[in-house]
Amino acid sequence: MRTITFAIDRFDGSRSWTQSFAFDHVPGMTVLACLIRIRETQDPSLNFTASCRSAICGACAVRVNGNAVLACDTMLDDLLEEWGQDTLRIAPLGNFTVISDLVVNWDEKIERLRLARPGLHARAEFSASGGCRQSPRDFQAIQKQWDCILCGACASECNKLADSRADFLEPFTFTHASRYARDSRSADSMLHVNGMLDNGLWKCVHCMECATKCPKHIQPVEDIASMRGMATAGGRTDGPGPRHAQAFRTDLENTGRLNEVKLVPRTEGLLSAATRRLPFTLRMFARGKLGVGEAIHLFFADNRPVEGIDGLRKIIRQRRRDH
Ligand code: SF4
Ligand code: SF4
Ligand code: FES
């Protein structure tokens, strides 16, 4: 009989340790079924949360070997094949405060979710008509975002959030803000976008972890992009984020290639770039990462448009029309 081991991160409120539980392999078990079996047969003090067992409630998300998954929707056999080993590390979600073992604190996350002003603030005409109907086409535009089950997998793996929770929000918060901002019935889309603007809308580092980890195939990173577009269209173009996006687009539109050396002064302003980035640039020179000749060449790089630039410009124009 094959033996599987779960090495589980434990926490009792003051002490942390890793405890290994070995059990016989039975084909067709989910990660949640394994955890339940461990609790029922080996250690009744093991804490984790779950409810629906059908990928609906979002309560059972945990990390397996450093990747957030829904325990009730993840087959043990798939993991064994993916990792090629019979020992798996089970841990609570990252970027959450742990309460006990695999149980994390959602209270603080829900407080932060309020910044999205979740809830429909409908246009006045709807109160007059006594209904709040929406065409199937308009609903389809936000249907994916409605699928969010608040499991926290995206927040667990978000690299920007891991860097700092002080100036960025959980990816699902952007998804919820986008869902209401883009709802055809909303009275004021910017009501939902403004809270995001003040809390890191331009600080996502595009690591794509939220998009690859979401069990519902939602892409919070795309919701961030669409709200950036709404903010820019609404005249909120101050700050390095919008300037960076504009410089990026100008480069692509003009030549089809990015000049990353010029991107920094155009984003941060010449004086700020010169003072803030100079020590870093000098370190690059000192360590041989960048030669003076190479820097000059990069700065005055070939500005002729690449072959096929007309096609690229057409795509950019089309995207602009779509938004
Ligand atoms: S793409 Fe942005 S929001 Fe998504 S996980 Fe990475 S940093 Fe976070
Ligand atoms: S966006 Fe996806 S991963 Fe994030 S909380 Fe919602 S369902 Fe979970
Ligand atoms: S138990 Fe509800 S989503 Fe897993």
Largest sheet geometry: 5 strands, mixed
Strand-pairing-aware structural class: alpha+beta
CATH fold field value of the largest domain: Fumarate Reductase Iron-sulfur Protein, Chain B, domain 2
Average pLDDT level: 92
CATH class of the largest domain: Mainly Alpha
**Which ranges are low-confidence, i.e. pLDDT below 50, for 5 or more consecutive residues?**
none
**Name of the CATH superfamily of the largest domain:** Alpha-helical ferredoxin
- Identify the strand order in the major beta sheet: 2-1-5-3-4
What fraction, in percent, of the residue positions are helical? Answer: 40-55%
In DSSP terms (H or I, runs of 4 or more residues), the helix count works out at 16
Q: What does the overall shape look like?
A: globular
Query: How many domain modules?
Result: 3
Q: What proportion strand?
A: 5-15%
Structural features, described:
The chain has 323 residues and is an alpha+beta fold. It folds into three domains: 3-104, Beta-grasp domain (Ubiquitin-like (UB roll)); 107-233, Alpha-helical ferredoxin (Fumarate Reductase Iron-sulfur Protein, Chain B, domain 2, Orthogonal Bundle), CATH 1.10.1060; 240-322, no CATH class. It contains 16 helices and seven strands. The chain has helices at residues 31-41, 76-83, 107-113, 124-129, 136-146, 153-157, 159-163, 171-181, 189-197, 209-213, 220-233, 240-254, 260-268, 270-286, 292-299, 309-322, and strands at 3-11, 16-24, 61-64, 67-70, 87-91, 98-100, 103-104. The strands form two sheets. Strands 2-1-5-3-4 form a five-stranded mixed sheet. A two-stranded antiparallel ribbon has the order 6-7. 26% of the residues are buried. The mean pLDDT is 92. It binds iron/sulfur cluster (2 copies) and FE2/S2 (inorganic) cluster (FES). Residues 148-154, 171-172, 175, 213-214, 216, 218, 220 line the site of one iron/sulfur cluster.
